[in-house]
Amino acid sequence: MSNSSNFFLNNFFELENTPCECKKETVHTAPGVDPSFVLKVCANPNANSLHFSYSAQKGLNLSGNAGGIITENILGQLLAIKPNDVDGTISFLEKYGFIFPISSEMYETIDGTVLLEILNRIKATVKLMSAIAGKKDYKAILIYTTYLLFSEPIEMKLSSITYNTNFHEFTNLIRTYNIIPDLHRNQEFFDTECISIFDTLKGDFEKLDINEIAGMSEGSGVTGLTGSRDYYFRNLFCLYTTYNMANDNLRNIIDFYYNYQKKVSIIKNVEPTRITYYSSPNKENFSDEMKEMLVKIAKIVISEEINANLHNICPQLEINALTPTWKLNSLLEALYFSVFYMKPGVELYKECENPNCKHEKYFLINATVTNKKYCCPACANAAAQRRSRQRKLNK
Ligand SMILES: [Zn+2]
């Protein structure tokens, strides 16, 4: 067997990336308003190109020309960057190159917020996969799923490609769909002042009464339901009551968010790691049926995110040895492809429990290993010493 086919057996895929220069410009738009950031990025074709490879259990690595690993676990390093950390993101890009192919002749101008959002989405996808593996963390599942479904779609335009994050049918509908129930031709409403909607969460018909239908249809909201005048909640009501769909997945998403918000609390704002509500959430109403449906929705969202980011990857046969390879187009694809190869429920990314971790922060472990808390022996020692100091202080 030749070396190259061994290489393909050991490495699931490879990618060459060009190092880049990345300059930050601070834009002050108005007094008292936080500044925004524009990045000027340019590929540096004179520097040695960066070679990435993916192997099982080790994740995505930066390797040398001879195949030796220079840096392990690139995805774990990305996960450790905080959602709004522009400088941390720049140093990641300067180390590993830009996430898409860029010009080497001129600076390309990148909106800092757009770049952070694209990276926040892949982080949310990986953390969501980890949250559903092993012992389920429902709060995390809800936050990441909701962030991926509800946040504003964004677009990055570069000289060679345009990338868009509008992957989910629901994301588009919740912004646009506003058809209210037509009561004039509704015999049930004429007879009973109610309309029945088949609800997949309940597994039965849900009856909506005249107060709810009128309040939601007119836009004045429902008495006692704080936040029910919210624009997205109203569109969700329209989807729940009048949208005809053949797609079960979409119906589950709509039914979950309608029930969750009616019974727990209406969502005011969604950020990468946090949801805010119009009123204090009634957590006791977050039922087991809702949790089960949420996990199903999380799986739909993960698969849509990953599929959308992989669809330009092609299998290819290398000419000389006729060995099979994958042709990847960007570092972002390589990052998503390494999520694709993570075995759901088998491998997951865990955050090191040493608060001062300077090592891997997020490390890849087997989902069945529940007692590994630290990324390395040094962090385990540091945490043990910290605990013993704390015990002495408390004496
Ligand atoms: Zn650590």
Describe this entry's structure for a reader.
This protein is α+β, with helices and mostly antiparallel strands. It has two domains: 3-135 and 154-164 and 305-383, no CATH class; 171-304, no CATH class. The chain is built from 13 helices and 17 strands. The chain has helices spanning 3-10, 74-79, 86-96, 112-132, 138-150, 169-176, 187-192, 210-218, 231-242, 248-263, 288-310, 331-340, 377-394; strands at residues 13-17, 20-27, 36-43, 50-55, 59-63, 69-71, 108-111, 155-157, 162-164, 194-199, 204-209, 267-271, 274-277, 314-317, 324-327, 347-351, 362-366. Strands 1-4-5-6 form a four-stranded antiparallel β-sheet. A hairpin with a 2-residue loop joins strand 12 (267-271) and strand 13. The longest helix has 23 residues, at 288-310. It is globular, with a radius of gyration of 24 Å. Residues 1-5 have low confidence and may be disordered. Residues 352, 354, 357, 359-360, 374-376, 379 line the site of zinc ion.
Outline the secondary-structure elements.
Layout: H1 3-10, E1 13-17, E2 20-27, E3 36-43, E4 50-55, E5 59-63, E6 69-71, H2 74-79, H3 86-96, E7 108-111, H4 112-132, H5 138-150, E8 155-157, E9 162-164, H6 169-176, H7 187-192, E10 194-199, E11 204-209, H8 210-218, H9 231-242, H10 248-263, E12 267-271, E13 274-277, H11 288-310, E14 314-317, E15 324-327, H12 331-340, E16 347-351, E17 362-366, H13 377-394
Antiparallel strand pairs: 1-4, 2-3, 3-7, 4-5, 5-6, 8-9, 10-11, 12-13, 14-15, 16-17
Helix pairs in contact: 4-5, 4-11, 5-11, 6-9, 9-10, 10-11
